[in-house]
Amino acid sequence: MTKLFFALSRWPLGVLHALGWIMGWLTYALSPSYRRRLRAHAGQAGLSRWQRWQAVGQVGRMVAELPRLWARPRDEALGARVQWQGAEAVAQALAEERGLLLLTPHTGCFEVVAQAYAERFGAEVPLTALYRPARQRWLAELMLHARNRPGIQTSPATLTGVRHMLRALKRGETVGILPDQVPPEGMGTWAPFFGRPAYTMTMAGKLVAQTGCAVVLMRGERLSTLARWRRGCDYVVHAERVAPQDEAVLAAGDAAQSAATINRLMEHVIMQAPEQYLWGYNRYKGPRPEALTSADVGGPPPGGAG
Prior knowledge:
By secondary structure, the chain is of the alpha/beta class. The chain has helices at 2-8, 13-30, 32-44, 49-64, 66-70, 87-95, 110-121, 137-147, 159-170, 203-211, 225-231, 244-252, 255-270; strands spanning 82-85, 100-103, 127-131, 152-156, 174-177, 188-193, 196-201, 214-222, 235-241. The protein has one domain (76-297). Helix 2 crosses helix 4 and helix 12 (244-252) runs antiparallel to helix 13 (255-270). It is globular and about 45 Å long. The chain starts with a helix and ends in a 36-residue tail after the last helix.
Protein backbone atom coordinates (compact mmCIF):
# COMPACT_ATOMS: atom_id res chain seq x y z
CA MET A 1 0.00 0.00 0.00
CA THR A 2 2.82 2.39 0.80
CA LYS A 3 4.37 1.90 -2.65
CA LEU A 4 1.00 2.54 -4.29
CA PHE A 5 0.54 5.67 -2.21
CA PHE A 6 3.92 7.07 -3.24
CA ALA A 7 3.25 6.16 -6.86
CA LEU A 8 -0.06 8.06 -6.79
CA SER A 9 1.74 11.08 -5.34
CA ARG A 10 3.34 11.63 -8.75
CA TRP A 11 0.03 11.69 -10.61
CA PRO A 12 -1.37 15.06 -11.77
CA LEU A 13 -3.72 16.61 -9.25
CA GLY A 14 -6.44 16.96 -11.88
CA VAL A 15 -6.37 13.21 -12.55
CA LEU A 16 -6.49 12.40 -8.83
CA HIS A 17 -9.41 14.75 -8.33
CA ALA A 18 -11.29 13.17 -11.22
CA LEU A 19 -10.79 9.70 -9.75
CA GLY A 20 -11.75 11.04 -6.34
CA TRP A 21 -14.99 12.45 -7.68
CA ILE A 22 -15.90 8.97 -8.94
CA MET A 23 -14.92 7.38 -5.60
CA GLY A 24 -17.05 9.87 -3.74
CA TRP A 25 -20.13 9.01 -5.75
CA LEU A 26 -19.46 5.27 -5.54
CA THR A 27 -19.31 5.50 -1.76
CA TYR A 28 -22.51 7.53 -1.72
CA ALA A 29 -24.26 4.99 -3.94
CA LEU A 30 -23.07 1.88 -2.11
CA SER A 31 -23.50 2.98 1.51
CA PRO A 32 -27.11 3.69 2.56
CA SER A 33 -26.10 4.81 6.07
CA TYR A 34 -23.52 7.27 4.72
CA ARG A 35 -26.03 8.54 2.17
CA ARG A 36 -28.67 9.13 4.85
CA ARG A 37 -26.22 10.99 7.10
CA LEU A 38 -24.95 13.24 4.33
CA ARG A 39 -28.47 14.15 3.24
CA ALA A 40 -29.67 14.74 6.80
CA HIS A 41 -26.68 16.79 7.94
CA ALA A 42 -26.51 18.90 4.78
CA GLY A 43 -30.25 19.46 4.95
CA GLN A 44 -29.95 20.45 8.61
CA ALA A 45 -27.53 23.19 7.55
CA GLY A 46 -29.81 24.37 4.74
CA LEU A 47 -27.73 23.30 1.75
CA SER A 48 -29.36 23.21 -1.66
CA ARG A 49 -29.60 20.00 -3.67
CA TRP A 50 -26.77 21.23 -5.92
CA GLN A 51 -24.53 21.89 -2.92
CA ARG A 52 -25.26 18.41 -1.55
CA TRP A 53 -24.34 16.85 -4.89
CA GLN A 54 -21.13 18.84 -4.96
CA ALA A 55 -20.31 17.67 -1.42
CA VAL A 56 -20.51 14.02 -2.52
CA GLY A 57 -17.73 14.43 -5.06
CA GLN A 58 -15.63 16.75 -2.91
CA VAL A 59 -15.24 14.07 -0.23
CA GLY A 60 -13.72 11.76 -2.82
CA ARG A 61 -11.38 14.52 -3.96
CA MET A 62 -10.25 15.04 -0.37
CA VAL A 63 -9.17 11.38 -0.17
CA ALA A 64 -7.64 11.28 -3.63
CA GLU A 65 -5.37 14.29 -3.06
CA LEU A 66 -3.79 12.83 0.09
CA PRO A 67 -0.95 11.03 -1.75
CA ARG A 68 0.35 14.33 -3.14
CA LEU A 69 0.22 15.97 0.29
CA TRP A 70 1.41 13.10 2.46
CA ALA A 71 4.02 11.48 0.22
CA ARG A 72 5.56 14.72 -1.03
CA PRO A 73 9.32 14.81 -0.32
CA ARG A 74 10.17 16.78 2.82
CA ASP A 75 12.39 19.16 0.89
CA GLU A 76 9.73 19.89 -1.75
CA ALA A 77 7.86 23.07 -0.85
CA LEU A 78 4.23 23.78 -1.64
CA GLY A 79 5.39 27.12 -2.97
CA ALA A 80 3.10 28.74 -5.53
CA ARG A 81 0.65 25.86 -5.38
CA VAL A 82 -0.85 27.54 -2.32
CA GLN A 83 -2.02 31.14 -2.07
CA TRP A 84 -3.05 32.93 1.12
CA GLN A 85 -5.95 35.16 2.02
CA GLY A 86 -5.69 36.72 5.44
CA ALA A 87 -2.08 35.82 6.21
CA GLU A 88 -1.85 39.13 8.07
CA ALA A 89 -4.27 37.77 10.67
CA VAL A 90 -1.76 35.05 11.53
CA ALA A 91 1.19 37.45 11.45
CA GLN A 92 -0.53 39.92 13.77
CA ALA A 93 -1.52 37.19 16.23
CA LEU A 94 2.04 35.85 16.31
CA ALA A 95 3.39 39.35 16.90
CA GLU A 96 1.47 39.45 20.19
CA GLU A 97 3.73 36.64 21.45
CA ARG A 98 1.09 35.02 23.67
CA GLY A 99 0.65 31.78 21.76
CA LEU A 100 -1.68 31.08 18.86
CA LEU A 101 -4.47 28.51 18.54
CA LEU A 102 -5.50 27.63 14.98
CA LEU A 103 -9.02 26.20 14.62
CA THR A 104 -9.75 24.32 11.39
CA PRO A 105 -12.89 22.30 10.65
CA HIS A 106 -12.95 19.24 8.39
CA THR A 107 -13.64 21.28 5.30
CA GLY A 108 -11.79 21.50 2.02
CA CYS A 109 -8.16 20.41 2.11
CA PHE A 110 -7.55 20.75 5.83
CA GLU A 111 -4.30 18.79 5.47
CA VAL A 112 -2.75 21.65 3.49
CA VAL A 113 -3.38 24.20 6.26
CA ALA A 114 -0.66 22.92 8.61
CA GLN A 115 1.86 22.53 5.80
CA ALA A 116 1.17 26.01 4.48
CA TYR A 117 1.54 27.50 7.96
CA ALA A 118 4.82 25.64 8.47
CA GLU A 119 6.30 26.95 5.22
CA ARG A 120 5.32 30.56 5.89
CA PHE A 121 5.67 30.89 9.66
CA GLY A 122 7.05 27.63 11.06
CA ALA A 123 10.73 28.56 10.93
CA GLU A 124 10.16 31.25 13.55
CA VAL A 125 7.11 29.89 15.39
CA PRO A 126 6.60 26.12 15.02
CA LEU A 127 3.22 24.45 14.94
CA THR A 128 2.19 21.59 17.23
CA ALA A 129 -0.77 19.57 15.98
CA LEU A 130 -2.71 16.86 17.79
CA TYR A 131 -3.46 13.68 15.83
CA ARG A 132 -4.90 10.23 16.38
CA PRO A 133 -2.48 7.53 15.13
CA ALA A 134 -3.89 5.16 12.55
CA ARG A 135 -4.38 1.52 13.53
CA GLN A 136 -2.79 0.19 10.35
CA ARG A 137 0.98 0.23 10.67
CA TRP A 138 1.65 1.35 7.08
CA LEU A 139 -0.81 4.21 7.39
CA ALA A 140 0.55 5.30 10.78
CA GLU A 141 4.09 5.46 9.35
CA LEU A 142 2.85 7.39 6.33
CA MET A 143 1.05 9.90 8.53
CA LEU A 144 4.23 10.48 10.52
CA HIS A 145 6.16 11.06 7.28
CA ALA A 146 3.51 13.51 6.10
CA ARG A 147 2.98 15.49 9.27
CA ASN A 148 6.44 15.66 10.82
CA ARG A 149 7.89 18.28 8.53
CA PRO A 150 10.07 21.33 9.17
CA GLY A 151 8.03 23.76 11.26
CA ILE A 152 5.49 21.11 12.32
CA GLN A 153 5.56 18.99 15.46
CA THR A 154 2.86 16.38 15.99
CA SER A 155 1.58 14.98 19.27
CA PRO A 156 -0.62 11.89 19.66
CA ALA A 157 -4.10 12.32 21.15
CA THR A 158 -2.99 11.25 24.60
CA LEU A 159 -2.64 13.01 27.93
CA THR A 160 1.06 13.55 27.19
CA GLY A 161 0.27 14.96 23.77
CA VAL A 162 -2.21 17.49 25.06
CA ARG A 163 0.26 18.61 27.73
CA HIS A 164 2.78 19.20 24.95
CA MET A 165 0.25 21.51 23.31
CA LEU A 166 -0.30 23.41 26.52
CA ARG A 167 3.44 23.91 27.01
CA ALA A 168 3.83 25.02 23.39
CA LEU A 169 1.22 27.75 23.84
CA LYS A 170 2.84 28.93 27.04
CA ARG A 171 6.12 29.25 25.11
CA GLY A 172 4.33 31.52 22.65
CA GLU A 173 4.17 28.91 19.88
CA THR A 174 1.26 27.75 17.72
CA VAL A 175 -1.12 24.84 18.20
CA GLY A 176 -3.58 23.45 15.65
CA ILE A 177 -6.87 21.66 16.44
CA LEU A 178 -9.79 20.34 14.38
CA PRO A 179 -12.59 20.94 16.89
CA ASP A 180 -15.56 19.65 14.88
CA GLN A 181 -15.02 15.96 15.69
CA VAL A 182 -16.73 14.00 18.45
CA PRO A 183 -14.37 13.83 21.45
CA PRO A 184 -14.09 10.87 23.82
CA GLU A 185 -16.50 10.54 26.71
CA GLY A 186 -15.82 13.02 29.51
CA MET A 187 -13.88 15.37 27.22
CA GLY A 188 -16.73 17.44 25.85
CA THR A 189 -20.16 18.88 26.39
CA TRP A 190 -23.34 19.07 24.32
CA ALA A 191 -23.71 22.28 22.30
CA PRO A 192 -25.72 23.35 19.23
CA PHE A 193 -24.18 22.65 15.84
CA PHE A 194 -26.34 23.78 12.93
CA GLY A 195 -29.32 23.81 15.26
CA ARG A 196 -28.87 20.29 16.67
CA PRO A 197 -27.08 19.23 19.89
CA ALA A 198 -23.64 17.77 19.18
CA TYR A 199 -21.08 16.46 21.67
CA THR A 200 -18.35 19.09 21.37
CA MET A 201 -14.78 19.16 22.63
CA THR A 202 -13.97 21.67 25.35
CA MET A 203 -10.20 21.40 24.98
CA ALA A 204 -9.97 24.43 22.69
CA GLY A 205 -11.66 26.65 25.23
CA LYS A 206 -9.52 25.29 28.05
CA LEU A 207 -6.32 25.99 26.14
CA VAL A 208 -7.38 29.60 25.65
CA ALA A 209 -8.50 29.94 29.27
CA GLN A 210 -5.25 28.57 30.67
CA THR A 211 -2.81 30.35 28.35
CA GLY A 212 -4.54 33.52 27.13
CA CYS A 213 -3.52 32.67 23.56
CA ALA A 214 -4.85 34.32 20.41
CA VAL A 215 -7.27 32.40 18.16
CA VAL A 216 -7.37 32.29 14.36
CA LEU A 217 -9.80 30.40 12.11
CA MET A 218 -8.31 28.68 9.07
CA ARG A 219 -9.48 26.58 6.14
CA GLY A 220 -7.90 25.21 2.99
CA GLU A 221 -10.04 25.78 -0.09
CA ARG A 222 -9.69 23.17 -2.83
CA LEU A 223 -9.87 24.83 -6.25
CA SER A 224 -11.59 23.42 -9.30
CA THR A 225 -9.62 22.70 -12.46
CA LEU A 226 -10.78 25.95 -14.06
CA ALA A 227 -10.01 27.98 -10.94
CA ARG A 228 -6.55 26.41 -10.71
CA TRP A 229 -5.84 27.45 -14.28
CA ARG A 230 -7.06 31.00 -13.68
CA ARG A 231 -5.31 31.57 -10.34
CA GLY A 232 -2.16 29.53 -10.97
CA CYS A 233 -2.43 27.57 -7.72
CA ASP A 234 -4.11 24.44 -6.35
CA TYR A 235 -5.36 25.68 -2.97
CA VAL A 236 -6.18 28.89 -1.15
CA VAL A 237 -5.57 29.02 2.60
CA HIS A 238 -7.95 31.40 4.35
CA ALA A 239 -7.15 32.86 7.78
CA GLU A 240 -9.43 35.00 9.94
CA ARG A 241 -8.87 36.37 13.43
CA VAL A 242 -11.54 35.51 15.97
CA ALA A 243 -13.44 38.56 17.23
CA PRO A 244 -12.30 39.91 20.64
CA GLN A 245 -15.68 39.15 22.23
CA ASP A 246 -15.42 35.50 21.16
CA GLU A 247 -11.87 35.22 22.46
CA ALA A 248 -13.15 36.67 25.74
CA VAL A 249 -15.82 33.96 25.99
CA LEU A 250 -13.23 31.24 25.44
CA ALA A 251 -10.85 32.83 27.93
CA ALA A 252 -13.57 32.93 30.59
CA GLY A 253 -13.37 29.16 30.91
CA ASP A 254 -17.07 28.23 30.94
CA ALA A 255 -17.28 24.85 29.18
CA ALA A 256 -20.82 25.19 27.82
CA GLN A 257 -20.36 28.73 26.52
CA SER A 258 -16.97 27.90 25.03
CA ALA A 259 -18.34 24.86 23.18
CA ALA A 260 -21.27 26.86 21.83
CA THR A 261 -18.90 29.58 20.65
CA ILE A 262 -16.56 27.07 19.00
CA ASN A 263 -19.45 25.46 17.12
CA ARG A 264 -20.74 28.84 15.95
CA LEU A 265 -17.27 29.73 14.69
CA MET A 266 -16.99 26.40 12.89
CA GLU A 267 -20.38 27.00 11.25
CA HIS A 268 -19.11 30.37 10.06
CA VAL A 269 -16.03 28.81 8.44
CA ILE A 270 -17.91 25.83 6.97
CA MET A 271 -20.57 27.95 5.29
CA GLN A 272 -17.93 29.91 3.38
CA ALA A 273 -17.62 26.81 1.15
CA PRO A 274 -20.32 24.38 2.38
CA GLU A 275 -19.91 21.98 -0.54
CA GLN A 276 -16.40 21.12 0.73
CA TYR A 277 -17.41 20.03 4.23
CA LEU A 278 -17.57 16.38 5.35
CA TRP A 279 -21.34 16.24 5.83
CA GLY A 280 -21.26 12.44 5.91
CA TYR A 281 -19.28 12.42 9.18
CA ASN A 282 -21.38 11.14 12.09
CA ARG A 283 -21.10 14.43 13.97
CA TYR A 284 -24.15 13.90 16.18
CA LYS A 285 -23.21 10.51 17.62
CA GLY A 286 -22.54 9.99 21.30
CA PRO A 287 -18.99 10.02 22.67
CA ARG A 288 -16.86 6.90 22.72
CA PRO A 289 -15.20 5.61 25.90
CA GLU A 290 -11.55 6.62 26.13
CA ALA A 291 -8.72 6.34 28.63
CA LEU A 292 -7.73 9.99 28.18
CA THR A 293 -9.65 12.10 30.68
CA SER A 294 -10.56 15.73 31.00
CA ALA A 295 -7.50 16.38 33.15
CA ASP A 296 -5.68 16.69 29.82
CA VAL A 297 -4.83 20.36 30.20
CA GLY A 298 -4.15 20.29 33.92
CA GLY A 299 -6.40 20.98 36.87
CA PRO A 300 -9.70 19.34 37.84
CA PRO A 301 -12.12 17.92 35.28
CA PRO A 302 -15.02 20.40 35.44
CA GLY A 303 -16.38 19.87 31.95
CA GLY A 304 -14.09 17.69 29.91
CA ALA A 305 -11.91 18.35 26.91
CA GLY A 306 -11.61 16.78 23.56
